[in-house]
Specification:
The complex is a heterodimer of chains A (215) and B (365). Chain A has 215 residues and is an alpha/beta fold. Chain A contains ten helices and six strands. The chains are: A alpha/beta (215), B alpha/beta (365).
Chain lengths: 215, 365
C-alpha cells in the first residue's frame, strides 16, 4: 500500500504540531503539508496530490466550510476530515453539508486519529463517537424539515382551538381554561400563523378539515 | 398667567357695578348680559372664577351652572351665585347641587365681593403652582425612567458582550491550548501505557482530567453564549440549545418556529436566546415537566416567543410565584429592553405558559 498523503489545516500551530506528533512515527502516513487557513490549503492542493485533508472549521481568511466546498468541486478524490472542538455542532453540520466525510475531536487519542484516517481513506465515513451523533442528526434533520413540514399544534393550542370551534369568545375561553385573555390571544395568534388562517372562520375551517376533529 | 373672571347679569347697572368693584384686582374680567351667550363663552374660554346672577330670563343661574359643569374647560371652575335677599334653604341646596361653591346676597357689598374673589384667586394661583410642579415632577419621573432603562440596557448589553468575549476566549484560547495538550499527551499515551507502572497510571489520570477540563470549558462556553450565534443566528442557536438540553434531561423539548434563516439585530438575538435559555433552565430545575414546547413565531407586526410545559405549575397568587424570581426578572428586563411585554400564566397542576411579544419595528435586519 502506498503512503497516504495528508494535509493538516488549522490556524493554531500547536494543534497542527499535536496532530503531526501523533502521525510522525506512522509508516503508512505522510504529512506533506500544513496550512493555517483555507486559502493556504487550496494553494498547496494546486501543486500537491493529497489523499486526506484534516480541516479545522473556524479559521481566518477562508474557513473550513468554504474550503471544503472548493475541494469537493476541484479535487473530488481528496477526502476531508473535519477537526472540531466540542462546542461546534452547528459548524459541523455545515462541514458535512459542504462535503466532509467525517469528523474528529481536537482532543482525540492517537488510536482514534489513525482509525479515522484509515476509514475515510478507504471511502467510508467516520464520526467521532464522543460527539453526540444524536445532536448532529437532530440538527441536520430539523434544518431540512422545518422548510416543508408545517408546525404541529401544541396541546394548549389544541384546547383553545376546540373551544373556538364551539364558538366561545376569548373571554369565555380564558375563563374555562383559567388563563388570562392575553394568553388566549397569544394562542390564537400562533394558531392563525400555524394554520395559515386569516381569522376565526379560517381556524374553524381548518379544524373541521383536520382529522383530529373527525373522530 | 392672569386670572380671568366671567361676570353674568342681565341688568346692565348691576354688571357695571360688579365690574367696577373688581377694578384694582389684577384680574381680567369678561362681562355678559345675555344668558344665551354664556354657553359659547364657557365652551371657548377657561375661567378661574364665574359669578352668576340667579334670576335671569330664559336661562337662570342654575341652568347656566349646569351648562358650565358640562364643558371641558370649566367643569371645575368655582362658581359664585348672586342671590336675592329672600333666598331660602331650599334654593341654596338647589344652587349647590347645580355646581355653586359660594353665595353673595344682594345688594352686593363691595368688600364682601372683593374678599371672596381674592380667596378664589389665591386658590387659583395655588392650583396653578401645583400644576406646574406636577408637570415638572412628571418630566423628572420620565427622565428617571429613561435613565433607568438606559442603565438596564448598558448592564444587559454589557453582560452579553462580556459573555461573548469570555466565550470566545475560552474557545479560541484556553480550549485550543487544552486540545493541543491532549493531542501531545495522546501521541505518547500508547507507549506509556505499555510500561504499565505507576508513571503510566498517573499519566492516564492526568490525561483523563485534561479531557474533563475540555468538557468543562465547553459547557461554560455554551452557558455563556454559543459561539455559533454570530454566524448562524437565532433559529440554529436555539435549535442547538434545545438539542443539548434535551440530551441532558429526560424532558421532551420541541422547538417550533417560522423564522427560518431570518436574522434580527444582535442584541435582539442575544436577548431572545438568553430568555429561551432561562425558560428551559427554570423548567429543568422546577417544573417536573415531561414535555416542553418552545415556539418562536414571526407575525405581521411582532415576534412572539412562547413557552409551554405540562409540569406542576405554580400558584401565581402566592409566594411560590417568587420561585427563582431572579430568572423571571432577567427575562422581564430583557423583554422590556426590546420594548416588549411578558405574560406568565400558571396554576398548580396545570403547567406553565409564558408568552413574550416583541414589536417588530427596528429589530429585523
Amino acid at each position: 500500500m502506498s503512503l497516504l498523503k495528508i494535509l493538516v489545516v488549522d490556524d493554531h500551530k500547536m494543534i497542527r504540531d499535536g496532530i503531526k506528533s501523533m502521525l510522525q512515527e506512522e509508516k503508512e502516513y505522510l504529512i506533506v503539508g500544513e496550512a493555517s487557513n483555507g486559502k493556504q490549503a487550496l494553494n498547496i492542493l494546486k501543486d500537491t496530490d493529497i489523499d486526506v485533508v484534516i480541516m479545522d472549521i473556524n479559521m481566518p481568511e477562508m474557513n473550513g466550510v468554504e474550503c471544503t466546498t472548493e475541494i469537493k468541486k476541484n479535487y473530488p478524490n481528496t477526502k476531508v476530515l473535519a477537526l472540531t472542538m466540542h462546542d461546534e455542532e452547528l459548524y459541523l453540520v455545515k462541514m458535512m453539508e459542504a462535503g466532509a466525510v467525517g469528523y474528529i475531536l481536537k482532543d482525540l487519542g492517537k488510536d482514534e486519529l489513525l482509525k479515522a484516517i484509515k476509514e475515510i481513506a478507504n471511502g467510508k465515513s467516520y464520526f467521532s463517537p464522543e460527539i453526540t451523533i444524536s445532536v448532529i442528526k437532530e440538527l441536520t434533520s430539523t434544518s431540512k424539515q422545518s422548510e416543508q413540514c408545517s408546525n404541529p399544534l401544541t396541546s394548549r393550542e389544541f384546547e383553545v382551538l376546540e373551544l373556538i370551534v364551539q364558538e366561545f369568545s376569548n373571554h369565555e375561553i380564558a375563563h374555562k381554561l383559567s388563563i388570562s385573555i392575553r394568553t388566549v390571544d397569544a394562542h390564537r395568534r400562533n394558531l392563525l400563523e400555524k394554520t395559515d388562517s386569516k381569522n376565526t372562520a379560517g381556524l374553524v375551517k381548518f379544524a373541521l378539515n383536520s382529522k383530529w376533529f373527525n373522530s | 398667567m392672569l386670572a380671568r373672571i366671567l361676570l353674568v347679569d342681565d341688568l346692565e347697572p348691576n354688571l357695571f357695578l360688579l365690574e367696577k368693584y373688581l377694578e384694582g384686582l389684577s384680574v381680567d374680567v369678561d362681562t355678559c348680559m345675555l344668558p344665551l351667550q354664556v354657553e359659547k363663552l364657557v365652551t371657548e374660554t377657561q375661567y378661574s372664577l364665574i359669578i352668576l346672577d340667579i334670576q335671569m330670563p330664559f336661562l337662570n343661574g342654575y341652568d347656566l351652572a349646569v351648562i358650565t359643569r358640562k364643558t371641558e374647560l370649566n367643569k371645575n371652575t368655582p362658581i359664585i351665585f348672586i342671590t336675592g335677599v329672600f333666598s331660602d334653604n331650599e334654593s341654596i341646596v338647589k344652587a349647590y347641587k347645580s355646581g355653586a361653591v359660594d353665595f353673595i346676597t344682594k345688594p352686593v357689598n363691595r368688600e364682601v365681593l372683593v374678599s371672596k374673589v381674592k380667596i378664589f384667586m389665591t386658590l387659583f394661583n395655588q392650583k396653578n403652582e401645583l400644576q406646574k410642579k406636577s408637570i415638572l415632577l412628571e418630566e423628572y419621573i420620565d427622565k428617571l425612567k429613561i435613565a433607568e432603562k438606559k442603565r438596564l440596557r448598558y448592564l444587559i448589553e454589557g453582560e452579553d458582550k462580556e459573555r461573548e468575549r469570555i466565550s470566545r476566549d475560552l474557545h479560541d484560547g484556553l480550549g485550543q491550548y487544552l486540545s493541543a495538550a491532549t493531542l501531545n499527551f495522546g501521541s505518547i499515551l500508547g507507549e506509556i501505557q505499555l510500561k504499565g507502572n505507576r508513571i503510566s497510571e498517573k499519566f492516564e489520570t492526568g490525561y483523563e482530567l485534561l479531557k474533563k477540563a475540555i468538557e468543562e470549558s465547553r459547557n461554560m462556553t455554551r452557558r455563556l453564549m454559543p459561539i455559533s450565534m454570530k454566524d448562524f443566528g437565532l433559529n440554529e442557536s436555539i435549535k442547538s440549545l434545545v438539542a443539548t438540553m434535551e440530551k441532558s434531561t429526560d424532558i421532551k423539548i420541541k422547538f417550533l418556529t417560522n423564522i427560518s434563516q431570518k436574522r434580527f439585530n444582535r442584541n435582539t438575538e442575544s436577548n431572545l436566546y438568553r430568555i429561551s435559555q432561562e425558560c428551559l433552565n427554570n423548567a429543568i430545575k422546577h417544573s417536573q415537566a415531561t414535555e416542553i414546547v418552545l415556539q418562536l413565531f414571526l407575525h405581521d407586526e411582532l415576534v412572539s416567543l412562547t413557552y409551554e410545559d405540562n409540569g406542576i405549575g405554580f400558584d401565581m397568587a402566592t409566594t411560590s410565584y417568587e420561585f427563582d424570581s431572579y430568572g423571571l426578572q432577567i427575562m422581564n428586563n430583557r423583554t422590556q429592553l426590546m420594548n416588549g411585554s411578558m405574560q406568565i400564566d400558571s396554576s398548580i397542576g396545570k403547567g406553565t405558559f409564558i408568552s413574550i411579544e416583541i414589536p417588530l419595528k427596528n429589530i429585523i435586519l
